[in-house]
Amino acid sequence: MRKICVIGNSVAASRAAEEAPLAGWGQYLEEFLGPDCDVRNYARDAMTLRDYYTERFAALLTLVGHGDLVLIAFGHVEQRVNQLNRYHGPREYKEYLRLYVEALRAEGAVPVLVTPAARCVFDISGSPVDTHDGYPRLTLEAAAELGCPVIDMTASTTQLLAELGPMRARGLFRWLDPGEHPAHPHGIVDASHYNHAGAREAARLVASGLAGLPGLPPGMVDVQRLVPGQMPPVQTEFTVQQPQLALTAQPEVAVAPAVTSPAPAELVGAGRKLTGTAPEGAEYVFFFEEGDYLGGTRTADDGTWQWRRAVQWPAGQHKVTAIALAGNAVSTAAETEFEVLDRLEAPETIGPRRGAWSGPRPRFSGKAGRGVQKVMVLEQGRLIAETPVRDDGSWRVTHPHDWRPGTYTVEFVAVFSAIHSPPARLELKVHGVPEDSWLHTSMSARLPCGPDCEHYPALPVW
């Protein structure tokens, strides 16, 4: 038997029956492979390249043997510059991929890189949105540089979403109205993780990618089984009959639905969902903007609801009208207003002043634009600090480590919701005692900060 091992994060991870409708593509992969393949799915929730390398990779290296395949499926969260413990800069990301590939080859195994699956996110025109910030390209570059087989799952899943369109694609994901599934009585909006139909389809696309790789043993993929499953129908909110009639019908329910989030005039991201409550007896809530029907959702038994558009909100001001439906009766209308931000300007750096010298423990400060929640600080592409932005737009942070004397380029990135700005760069000149001075060498008996240090950048923790 040839082992086919899957390592990665939650999108590939196998799920127990009680976790339904959640499913991972790794649990369906064996369905498309030949009888001599033994699939071992070691993908786990919340795993990044860095975490897996230190926590689980040694056990995998002990397990694999000559000719076994290892599918390396990361890149789903490593691009999140707003999360200190998850972010991998481009250079760090590719360096970890190199370490994985070289270690597996040393054991005689065959590494196969897999780009991340596309999320169920569409723009206003109905085209899938790239939510991975260029990291699929980094995976493809690493594969080319290392001469490693690669499956472009980003491309294949993006094509599938484009073919289905926003009105059907969510039927492959754990995206449910209240009451649709007993595990989620209040509904759930999850554009990243698959349900069972989606997981099987994603696994089929991975197997198709395997079948197209040169040099793999014949018969590994059973090409006769690479048949698409039944595609999801148009979702419920788009099949309500003549929803616009709710705007002109005489209200028979005196209480309007309430929108609890976003708050009035709040700044939100392009993927923001709405939440609220409906009047007693209402089983559905419609949403309109300037008379156009946007969609709708069922209500939970306790009258709460949550809803997210099938496409992203365009930037700018929005006024949304919500109307509840109870049987054939409609409620009075409620309106909520909010503003969508879809891009940020780089933060301004005030200190240290350009061209000025800094002491060995730099203090950074500056101003950020409207809506920015925090500023991330990077050096050599690695996150070294984060700081919240005050109500007046100012921010400041002192790095907790002494810096060696020299000149460095430091980057500052503004963050709001799931978006971030381009970096603002500052050349930092640090004054201090040279490394080869006796003042340093006389302290050689004492250790510097190591992996147990809680400061950043994040180091491997064994």
Automatic annotation (TrEMBL):
It holds the Pfam family Lipase_GDSL_2. Keywords: Hydrolase. Transmembrane segments: none annotated. Residues 6-179 form the SGNH hydrolase-type esterase domain. PANTHER family: PUTATIVE (AFU_ORTHOLOGUE AFUA_2G17250)-RELATED, RHAMNOGALACTURONAN ACETYLESTERASE. Belongs to the 'GDSL' lipolytic enzyme family. This is GDSL-type esterase/lipase family protein. It comes from Streptomyces yanii.
